[in-house]
Amino acid sequence: MKKILPKISFILSLQMRSKLLLLSQQYNFSISDLEIWCNKRKFIKKYTL
Question: What is the pTM of this model?
Answer without folding.
Answer: 0.40
